[in-house]
Amino acid sequence: MTLVILLIIVIILLLGYIIFLNIRLAKKNLFIESTVRRLAGIEQNWSPEEMMRFLSEIKKASHYGSFFTDKLFEEKPMGFLLEDENNSKIYIHYTKDEADARNIIREGFRFADSFYKTALPVTHDRLDLLIKHNGRKSFGNYMVIICISEKIFHHYSGELDKKGLKGVAVENVLTVAPPFRNENADIIYQLSNKFIKGYINHQTGEIISNPDYNPLYDSALFVQNLELFKNRAAS
């Protein structure tokens, strides 16, 4: 009788262990599937070097939970990053030098050709943010936060549609300096510093705000930019 009871206990323990392993496997599979989906979709424009950095981050991780140890995911940094999500489009950009982050606050965000080459859209989707952050944090400890009001974004998106400028991005319109070509023949644009909320040191959690931040900022320069793009398309 005792032997039968012991056998039943062993079976129950084995079943419990099997269920535990299946749950862990399911979590890992979910993470892998989500990662592949992001790499195949949103991050499809990554260069081979960027892809290798991201894969290296995954390889270094000893377990799934290790991705959540970054200071970025603490309450205050996350609150600062996402507090305007309901009425703004939010993007992040990484830089190694704090001087560069401060310069972006003062002068605005410069980007070559496409805003989305180095600025990533983020939302409250924690897994999406986690993947993007681990893929880009090697580019620097300073995460610059860019916020554009939905009202401003949709207004100029509508203006672009009215003028038939389908190939022009809204972010290229919201610039405050004439575009120019750099030494690599890339066209450089400068997004207004009013759309720079500040930056976060994701290693320490330190937050630096931009005193000039105004996601609702509008300017006659933006209207001029629309006309420049229209004239360029017509020529």
What does this structure look like?
- There is one protein chain.
- With 235 residues, the chain is an alpha+beta fold.
- 48% of the residues lie in helices and 17% in strands.
- The protein has 8 helices and 8 strands; from the N terminus they run H-H-H-E-H-E-E-H-E-H-H-E-E-E-E-H.
- A 5-stranded antiparallel β-sheet has the order 3-1-4-7-8, sandwiched between helices.
- Strand 7 and strand 8 form a beta hairpin.
- Helix 2 crosses helix 5.
- The longest helix is centred in the first third of the chain and has 39 residues.
- It is elongated.
- The chain starts with a helix and ends with a helix.
Describe the structure in brief:
This protein has 235 residues and is α+β, with helices and mostly antiparallel strands. The chain has helices spanning 2-40, 48-60, 75-82, 98-107, 126-136, 150-162, 170-173, 220-234, and strands spanning 88-95, 109-112, 120-122, 142-149, 180-181, 187-191, 196-201, 207-209. Helix content is 48%, strand content 17%.
Shape: elongated
Beta percentage is 15-25%
Numbering strands along the chain, what is their spatial order in the largest sheet?
A: 3-1-4-7-8
Round the Cα radius of gyration to an integer and report it: 23 Å
**For the report, how would you describe the main beta sheet?**
5 strands, antiparallel
Helix content: 40-55%
List SSEs in N-to-C order: HHHEHEEHEHHEEEEH
Keywords for this structure?
17% strand; elongated; 5-stranded antiparallel sheet; 235 residues; 8 strands; alpha+beta; 48% helix; 8 helices; 3-stranded antiparallel sheet; single chain
